Amino acid sequence: MGIAPVVSNFFDGEQSVLVMADNLDIRSNRLNLLGLLRNHARVLGDFGAIVKS
Fold first, then answer.
1. First-to-last CA distance in the chain?
2. pTM assigned to the model
3. How large is the average pLDDT for residues 33-48?
4. How far apart are CA 21 and CA 30, in angstroms?
5. Residue 16 lies in a domain
6. CA-based diameter of the chain, in Å?
């Protein structure tokens, strides 16, 4: 399985999670996880260069 379905399910699947949870420890862990994904994606390409016209 690729990363796209996993990330999609994380946000909008049957077992999706609320990143900005009320519990600060859980929120911090989930934000850190998203940060790791962002950092790994930056290795693949410069997504800031994408222009929607």
1. 31
2. 0.65
3. 82
4. 9
5. yes
6. 40
